[in-house]
Amino acid sequence: MPKVKEAPFPRRKTRRINVGSVPVGGGSPISVQSMTTTKTYDIGATLQQIAELTAAGCDIVRVACPTDKDAEALSIIAKQSTIPVIADIHFQPRYVFAAIEAGCGAVRVNPGNIRRFDDQVAEITRAASDHGTSLRIGVNAGSLDKRMYAKYGGATAEALAESAMWEASLFEEHGFHDFKISVKHHDPVTMIRAYEILADAGDWPLHLGVTEAGPAFQGTIKSATAFGALLREGIGDTIRVSLSAPPVEEVKVGIQILQSMGLRERTLEIVSCPSCGRAQVDVYTLAEEVTEGLKDLTVPLRVAVMGCVVNGPGEAREADLGVASGNGKGQIFIRGDVVETVPEDQIVECLIRHANALAEEMGLEEEGQVEVIV
């Protein structure tokens, strides 16, 4: 998992657990999670999607387990996945035991949904301890314990936090501490407050998420708002961006959020201006073509694509590689120095050529994520 040399702000101290091979909490790098959209019992399709998520940078993947067929598929999926698998369990406690036996890295339980849960906590903790399996206590606004809903008159931040702490105490009474907690809500303000209450109350590792965040644009805004506020406070050990979009998009957004907060090492960063009446080139098209041309590079390289003479030269000069465009031509900068001036129709080709040369020079040939800031 990509690391940073030093976090830009203090992180809350939490206990460390392991989700398979990935450490969570205790100062470990913040992991990015997502969830498959396939039917879990379709093993081939599920493993294919897990491979796509892994290639996008996903650290941990969750799979749904609503039926016997899904539970039966878990052992193969957990064994063949190259990243830890979390089984998502609702309603049936027996699937918790099936997931543990199957070798899943963790099991997500929602006590607000699982029938006959309280009287099986001791058995679950024994099984999880014997197999080295961690748990996630997942409290959602849409499936909040009815007692808490009645007490607070709705899915308030206090209701979510109290429900989570009550459920945590059930495991702790049996000496089990290998779990993390999530308290998800569709409203970022409510979600933020719920996590702040938990962070003040204990040292549990916390998994951040805005549930039912919406389509890609809306969900990205909600998640970035909530995660940014909490991460700035040092709260959060894993994240999942919930979007009504392909799960790979969730991973991309999650990684971008961590990179923008300085909590994950930056890869290729493209800085481009938003365009205005001063622009003398089509900045939108220029930035898109450069991004597309460099999509297979993953290097700590900042590329500036600028379209006017006001901010363009300064930004291009500050970047590792940049162009200041205007008057039908582009002035190419490499680490502060002008190296050539090319016609406007050659800017994209020129930037791609220099970026590849710099990447080769740095000896970084891995494929990966491109960061675009516009």
**Strand content bin:** 15-25%
Q: Give the CA-based shape.
A: elongated
Order of helices and strands: EEEHEHEHEHEHHEHEHEHEHEHEEEHE
Strand order of the largest sheet: 8-7-6-5-4-3-10-9
CATH architecture of the largest domain, please? Alpha-Beta Barrel
CATH superfamily of the largest domain: Dihydropteroate synthase-like
CATH class of the largest domain: Alpha Beta
Q: Show unreliable segments.
A: 364-374
What is the structural class? Answer: alpha/beta
- Report how far the terminal alpha carbons are from each other: 26 Å
Gyration radius, to the nearest Å? 23 Å
What name does the CATH topology of the largest domain carry? TIM Barrel
Q: Tell me the total number of β-strands.
A: 16
GO molecular function: 4 iron, 4 sulfur cluster binding; 4-hydroxy-3-methylbut-2-en-1-yl diphosphate synthase activity (ferredoxin); 4-hydroxy-3-methylbut-2-enyl-diphosphate synthase activity (flavodoxin); iron ion binding
Keywords: 4Fe-4S, Iron, Iron-sulfur, Isoprene biosynthesis, Metal-binding, Oxidoreductase
Pathway: Isoprenoid biosynthesis; isopentenyl diphosphate biosynthesis via DXP pathway; isopentenyl diphosphate from 1-deoxy-D-xylulose 5-phosphate: step 5/6
Cofactor: [4Fe-4S] cluster
Short description:
With 374 residues, the protein is an alpha/beta fold. It has helices spanning 43-56, 68-80, 93-102, 121-131, 146-152, 157-172, 188-201, 216-232, 247-260, 283-293, 312-318, 347-362; strands at 17-19, 22-24, 31-35, 60-64, 85-89, 106-109, 134-140, 179-184, 207-208, 238-240, 268-272, 302-306, 321-326, 329-334, 337-343, 370-373.
